[in-house]
Amino acid sequence: MEDHLPQSVRVERRPVSEHESRSANGPDWDRYADEYQATHGAFLGDAGFVWGPEGHTEDELGVLGDVAGLDVLEVGSGAGQCSRWVRTRGGRGFGLDLSHRQLQHSLRLDEETGVAVPSVRGTATALPFRARSFDVVFCSFGALQFVSDIDVAVGEVARVLRPGGRFAFSVTHPTRWMFPDDPGEAGLTATQSYWDRTPYVEVDDESGVVSYVEHHRTVGDWVRLLAAADFRLVDLVEPEWPEQHDRVWGGWSRTRGLLTPGTAIFAAHLGTR
Ligand SMILES: C[S@@+](CC[C@H](N)C(=O)[O-])C[C@H]1O[C@@H](n2cnc3c(N)ncnc32)[C@H](O)[C@@H]1O
Question: What is the chain's mean pLDDT, rounded?
């Protein structure tokens, strides 16, 4: 859900390793965090749980189910808004994020709201927790589409969940990959293959260094990734754009949202066998 493109950056499509993805995205989120929180903080709510730019909340959708009394981990927690919501509902919410600056915003909101979310800096592909530590793991547009080794990340979620644990995550709806990331009419014409998984890469023109990466998985890829890690898919929510909602967030807009899905929320339970 990035919506910035500095002028000195060129866009490419090419394979990138996990190391390259992480080395780019950590510093990128550090640079972008202040603007991100200033632009979207009020929409997200300091202790609010929004699943995506359509504005649907966990209170409305109930994807996670009751979290009271449960150990809940948010991967790619940013400023911890969702985990703070979990805490207000009686869950023990914990955050993990790659970006130091995002976590500083989380601390700021801890102090401002009086609801603290214990959080750690880390990456989705190496969760710093013992096996079977959590009842619920979730990501609201956090981490997963920034990770190259996605099988490792999903495996890590399975490892830290207790048997029967719940995993839910929102990502850019896979069908969006076909369209230019443009909130206007131009964003309604398919220009590239849905099946082309080559990552989106931003490269700093002067230094040649990769400065931002996003990865694409099809709906089928997600289903197979979950099944391979012993998850049972229980829902795939495709939130509809609310008729009156007129907020633009990067490539998400009313113009596109009324016609095509922008967000996919996968919900799964651990343990199929
Ligand atoms: C779009 S933000 C979402 C944050 C929060 N859920 C929200 O709605 O504001 C994505 C977050 O994922 C984090 N992130 C990116 N790559 C990550 C990784 N490999 N491991 C953990 N977090 C990562 C970023 O630092 C950023 O805070």
Answer: 96
- Percent of the chain residues topping a pLDDT of 70: 97
- Split at pLDDT 50, 70, 90, the class of 7 is low
Which option is the CATH number for 9-270: 1.20.5.170, 3.30.930.10, 3.40.50.150, 3.40.50.300? Answer: 3.40.50.150
124 lines ligand 1 (CB under 6 A): yes
Residue identifier of the C-alpha nearest atom 16 of ligand 1:
143
Among protein residues, the one whose CA lies closest to atom 3 of ligand 1: 142
Give the β-pairing of 161-172 and 263-270. antiparallel
Q: pTM of whole model > 0.85?
A: yes
Domain coordinates in residue numbering, the chain? 9-270
Rounded CA-CA distance 162/41 in Å is: 32
Q: E strands, the chain, where?
A: 9-13, 71-75, 92-97, 119-121, 134-140, 161-172, 200-204, 210-214, 231-237, 263-270
Average pLDDT over residues 67-86: 98
* DSSP symbol at 184: S
Give, using CA atoms, the residue closest to atom 23 of ligand 1.
143
pLDDT digits (tens, 9 = 90+) for 182-203: 999 999 999 999 999 999 999 9
Distance, in Å, from the CA atom of 246 to the CA atom of 253, rounded to the nearest integer, reads: 7
